[in-house]
Each structure stands twice: as C-alpha cells, then as structure tokens.
Design goal:
It is a single chain. The relative contact order is 0.07. Helix 5 runs parallel beside helix 6, helix 8 runs parallel beside helix 10 and helix 14 packs parallel to helix 15. Strand 8 and strand 9 form a beta hairpin. With about 725 residues, this protein is an alpha+beta fold. It has 15 helices and 35 strands. An eight-stranded parallel beta barrel has the order 16-17-20-23-24-25-26-27, surrounded by four helices. It has a six-stranded antiparallel β-sheet with strand order 28-29-30-35-32-33. Monomer.
C-alpha cells in the first residue's frame, strides 16, 4: 500500500538532492527501511506520474511541489531490482530499472590496485562499460574525482541534467560510480562535477573514454565491448620472439589526416587508409608505419600532440573497430605499427583533464612544475599513483587492445628535467637539489619495465634530445629502459652539414664524423621526422643547396648515408619523393610531383635503399654494435669524402660518399681483402635521374693504402654515394 511521505527529518537532505549538491544520493534514493517503514524513493525531474513493476502497477505519490516520488510497499513483495514506468510532462512514456536499487559494482581490489598505481587494466574498470547485473543490461560509469562533492553522469539519455544520475562515492579511493540499466552502445555522455571546496561546477569529458564525437564536439560515446575478429594471429605469435635488435627497421612516419584525402578534401576512414597506405608502404619497402598521435584531440593543428582522449582513436577517421582493421591489415601484410604517444603534457581545454575536479588533479598545482609555458600545456603529476596508473594503463591499452607494436614517447627530455626550457627562477629543485625530475624518471622506468614484461617484442622509443645517459639501457643497470632513442644529435649535425654549400663543407667535416664517437652508446633511430619540415624549416629538398639537379643529388646522397649509417631508419611522409613545399597538416602531400623525373627518381632511390637495407645483413645486423662499423677513411676533409665498412658475420660492404659536385676519377681507398669489388648501388644512377657516373667491377691491387694491404681505384660520382661488395 502507498501512503503519504514522512520527510520532515529529511527535508534538508532532499533539498541537497534537488540542488544537485548531495554527496551520497544512494542514502536517499532507492529502497530504504523495513516493514511499515519500507520506502522506495525516486527523483525524476521530468516525470508527471511514476508506477512500479508495470504500466498499471501501484503509483508513487509525489511529494508536494517537488519531483520526489515515494512508494511504501509495506509487506508487498517487491523484487530487489524493480522497473519504473513513468510518464513525462509532455505525455511520453518511459521505462527503466531504478539505478538506485543496484549496489556497488567496482570491487575493492580494483580500487586498491588503482590507489597503488599498479592496475595496468584500469581502463577496463573506469570510464563507461557495458555491464549486466542479474541479467539486467546497462552501462557502468566510473570516474576518479577525489575532491568532488557530487559527480553525475549527464548525457543524451537524461537531457544533460546533473540532477538525474548523481553517482555513488566509493570513499577514500576518490572513485565515483553508477550502473544505469537500459543504456546501450552509442549513448553520449560527460561527467558533471561539483567541487566540494569552492562549489565550482564543471562539465568534463571522460578521461577513460574509448570513443568521442567528431570535433569540435567533445562528448564521450559508450562503445561496444571489443568483438573485432583479428586475423593477425601469425604476426602476434611471432612478435615475442622477434629479434628487433638485429633486424631491419625502416619506419615511414605518417600524419593520417594529411597523407591523403578524398576528392572532396575529407579525411579518409581508417579502412580506406589501410588499403591505400599499406600498398604504398609495402611497395617502397618500409617495415613499419609510425603514426603521429591518433589519440583523440580537439585541435587539428596540434597534429595530435595535445591529447584529450588517451584511450580513444580519433573519430576523424572512424570507429575503434575501424582502427583495429587498420592495424590488422598492416600486420597481415608484414607491416608493424608504432604510435606516437604523449605522456609529457596535456592541453588546458576546460572540458578535459585540466583541474578535472576543480583542483589540479592530473597536473601539479605549482606552475613551476605543472605547466609548459612554451607550449601552453600542463605537466602530469608523476608523483601521484592514480596519475601514473592513468598513463601506464593508456600504454597498455594501445599495445593490448589494438595490437600495436610499439610506442614512440614524445618530449621525453621535457619530462626528465625540472628546468627544461625554464628561466633560472622558474623551477623547483628535487629533494637532492638537482634538476632531475625523479618522479618522472621512476614513471618512465616503470612504464618500460611493465610494457616489456607484459608485451614482449614491442618497442618503446624515446624522443630525447639531450645527453641523458643510458636512455636505452636496462633499468636494473640504472638506465631508463627504452628500446630505442631518436638520434637527434646526428640528425642536427648532418642537416647542418648538408645545408652548407659544397665549397664550404670541408670546414665542417667534423659534422660528418662526430656522431660515430657516440653512435653505439644507445640504441639509436636515425630520424628525419615531421619536426624537420615545419615551422619555417622548409622541406627536406629545399634544405639542400644548389640548383635543382644538385638539390636532388644532395638529398639522394643524404638518404644513402642514412641507410648505410648505423641505426634504424625513420623518414617522414613526403620526404621520400622530395616534397617541394613545407608540410602542412591542412592539406595532402603534393602527389602530383611524381609526374616529374627528379621526384620519381628520388622515390625509386628510397625504395631501393630500403631493399638493400633489408636484404644485406651488413647494413642492419649490428645497427647498435661497433662490430658492424669500421672507418676506412674519415679524414679526407679537403675533398669532403668519407668511406667506411658495414659488416656482419658473413658480409662486408664498402660505402663511399662524395659530398661535392666534383666527380673524382681514380679515387683510391684501402680494402680488407683482395679480389673483385662490384658496385651494387650508386645514388647517381640514371634510374634515380642522376648523371650515371660510376663503376662496374673493380679489381683490387696489392698496393697498401689506408692501413690495408690492398686497395682499389674507383670513380666517385658527384654528390653521390656508392656501395661496393666483393
């Protein structure tokens, strides 16, 4: 039976609910009491009438002048989880189970691991997930907001009204949760957060959201549980045993939004990109694709480096399953996939992580530790376990849920140094008085340790531009534990050298040779990345001096050095065919230039270099080991020529590079063994639109030269490199 409500002692608490200020809505809503005091209370701001169990079931009584409805069942049998049937003020009927008749969902063990920063799969618990309780389907929402007085789920299912679904606080964990029955895939949602200290009301998108609206909209989308049928079993089975240290790795770096678009200028879907990009990459011989961040981001011109969705592929190119197809298709065609990933900083957008619960939750409160002034972004508080767990689980998410083969960690230098790009009075020393960010260092070591343990065969690369020691050495020896590091020093030196007029290069010869002094101190990748072709730096082609022929010859020579120099290779899209204009994320590459012989020749050269690199163990077996390299002559600065050997156990190649436009006839170099040497590659070949100066077979002579018992006399083409093999 139903009877009038007795709410006098609860008036103040009920008022808090109506004002969306109550810390514990489950204490008032749902079923409470026993026997004659048994009451079911609901708060439905848009309801006119409410019934229980069926459209003709007992009717709730409305508390006068409010949107509270109560039903007193007495001894009437009411199921533990009861449905509500209600009619709104516009006459539309609704039905759903009462969310406030369900108990807590998130186990204490998960909360405990998260608080310790050791829940690698917390993305499976926080955020939104399809869930069932007693065979009743719905969606479970959970979010970390320890300084909130009240948190609500708002969405297209409740008119974005924070009064409708306030969440349950899980105490000292700082996590809020609610199970909302009846919701399903495709619902849009955010979190409305009331700060308990200031009363500030915030509307935030889900930090753990796995799909978001197309920008500029920012709501998260409830996604289906992963039901994608992967076809890359062979690749994944082989990956843990893959000896990447001694295998070729040539990486094609890509910004998906500007690599290619459709005829209307719209973004291509991940599935379209898979078909087109994989065919292109395979044809050119690259082994891996590295993606500029596809983690969701609001601003196109950030290229993805100002991330707001650390668990979601950007909706610019489709759904999460579309992205799974992209990776799957790459793997089926023997192409690895690496993702640029940004744990160094995040944007200040009001809808995202900045002051998430009204306090500096993910970032440091002090801007001297919590803000990158150069970039206008915030720095993660790596001393907070929950923040570290957020980032660690993001790394796991991409490696596990999308089968990615590695991550390239952006801006590592900015993480390592407390005084990175700061004035003398604008940073705080660590506990020992130094400038090292001890918490960030611990985070990086932990990330590298657990990802390598749990996902063997994957690689984690550092973009680290300083001389920090042991970046790619094991953590148990004091290293940071990265697999590889971008060789920014070599890149800067060689580009500086190549931009000099050839007549002046003899004065800068040390830029060619200095890199070998440290080449084997780390596991280096040689990068000509997107950073070198933006912000007024010009394209790779236009960095080169001279007339058109010389610029292309210089670039062919540069790539020849890159592919024969110790280290794995990385080339940004468009550089492989001599993109003439500086890269812009707002337009596609200048594919039309491939109609011209110079550009087509350069593309063919990169294709052949990739094949040489992959097919000759001497060029890749010891990329990180001094046993794979030996100078023949590094001192010929007057003619701007260097020569060296690349070696493996069963192969020995000779590389000679001429950095002047002057052909050198009868140029003598020492060789290790007597016999006939064959020119297997020449960057001046007619196939690359060169002048076709070179050699066929060259017979050694017993004339000692360069500390060798034998020597050969060769013709060196202008601005070109040649490779010889016995």
């Amino acid at each position: 039976m139903n009877k009038p409500s007795k709410t006098n002692t609860l008036d103040s608490e009920l008022i808090k609910l109506t004002e969306a200020k109550h810390h514990d809505p489950f204490a008032l809503l749902g079923r409470h009491g026993q026997g004659r005091d048994n009451v079911i209370r609901v708060y439905l701001p848009y309801a006119e009438t409410v019934r229980i169990n069926s459209p003709k079931g007992p009717e709730f009584s409305r508390t006068p002048d409010t949107d509270f409805f109560e039903y007193h069942p007495g001894n009437e049998a009411i199921p533990e989880h009861y449905p509500l049937f209600w009619t709104d003020k516009d006459g539309y009927d609704h039905q759903h189970y009462d969310p406030y008749c369900f108990g807590p969902v998130l186990p204490e063990f998960d909360q405990h691991l998260f608080a310790e920063g050791r829940h690698w799969h917390i993305y499976q618990k926080l955020g939104s997930h399809l869930h069932s309780v007693a065979d009743i389907p719905g969606v479970h929402f959970a979010v970390w907001a320890p300084n909130a007085q009240r948190v609500s789920v708002i969405g297209d299912f409740n008119r974005w009204d924070g009064r409708c679904h306030p969440m349950r606080s899980l105490g000292s964990s700082g996590i809020w949760e609610i199970f909302i029955p009846g919701l399903t895939v495709g619902c849009l949602y955010k979190f409305e957060i009331l700060n308990r200290h200031t009363g500030q009301l915030l509307v935030k998108t889900d930090p753990y959201g796995q799909q978001f609206e197309f920008r500029p909209q920012t709501a998260a989308i409830v996604t289906a549980e992963d039901s994608y049928t992967w076809q890359d079993g062979s690749w994944m089975d082989h990956r843990p045993q893959h000896d990447w240290l001694h295998q070729p790795m040539s990486i094609y770096e890509v910004h998906l939004g500007s690599w290619r678009r459709d005829h209307r200028g719209n973004f291509l879907n991940y599935r379209e990109l898979a078909e087109q990009l994989v065919d292109y990459v395979k044809e050119l011989g690259f082994t891996h694709i590295e993606l500029l961040p596809v983690t969701e981001h609001p601003l196109d011109i950030s290229w993805g480096y100002q991330t707001t969705g650390y668990f979601a592929p950007t909706s610019r190119h489709g759904t999460p399953d579309d992205f799974r197809y992209f990776v799957d298709h790459c793997h089926q065609n023997g192409i690895g996939v690496i993702l640029d990933w940004v744990p160094a900083h995040f944007p200040k957008d009001s809808f995202a992580l900045g002051r998430f619960d009204g306090t500096p939750l993910y970032e440091h409160e002090d801007p001297r530790k919590g803000e990158h002034r150069d970039w206008g972004t915030l720095i993660y508080n790596y001393s907070r376990n929950e923040v570290k767990n957020f980032l660690l689980s993001s790394a796991f998410f991409w490696l596990e849920e999308f089968h990615l083969d590695g991550l390239r960690v952006d801006a590592v230098a900015s993480m390592l140094y407390l005084d990175y790009s700061r004035d003398a009075n604008d940073w705080i020393p660590n506990m020992y008085g130094g400038n090292e960010n001890l918490e960030a260092i611990d985070f990086l070591r932990q990330m590298n340790t657990v990802t390598h343990e749990q996902h063997p065969g994957t690689v984690i690369m550092a973009e680290e531009s300083t001389s920090w020691p042991q970046v790619t050495r094991p953590t148990w020896t004091g290293g940071l534990g990265f697999s590889m590091k971008w060789n920014m020093g070599w890149m800067h030196d060689i580009l500086h050298y190549m931009q000099e007029q050839p007549i002046h290069r003899s004065y800068h010869h040390d830029s060619l040779t200095f890199g070998l002094l440290y080449a084997f101190t780390e596991n280096f990748v040689l990068p000509f990345s997107h950073d070198e072709v933006v912000h007024g730096k010009g394209s790779m082609l236009n960095k080169m001096p001279g007339d058109e022929w010389q610029r292309f010859a210089n670039l062919r020579l540069l790539y020849t050095m890159m592919f024969t120099y110790p280290g794995k290779k990385l080339l940004f899209m468009g550089c492989e065919f001599g993109q003439g204009t500086e890269w812009s994320c707002n337009r596609t590459l200048d594919w039309y230039v491939l109609d011209y012989a110079h550009h087509k020749g350069l593309q063919t050269l990169v294709k052949d270099l990739n094949k040489l690199y992959a097919n000759h163990a001497a060029l890749h077996r010891y990329d990180f080991d001094h046993h794979g390299f030996e100078w023949i002559d590094c001192h010929d600065y007057q003619q701007s020529i260097i020569s060296y050997r690349r070696k493996s156990a069963h192969e020995d190649l000779i590389v000679i590079l001429n950095f002047t436009p002057v052909p050198r006839e009868s140029y003598r170099i020492g060789v290790p063994n007597p016999g006939t040497y064959y020119e297997i590659f020449n960057s001046d070949s007619q196939y690359y639109d060169g002048s076709n100066t070179g050699n066929g077979a060259v017979l050694s002579e017993p004339q000692p030269w360069m500390n060798q018992d034998h020597s050969i006399s060769v013709t060196l083409p202008p601005l070109a490199g040649i490779i010889l093999k016995m």
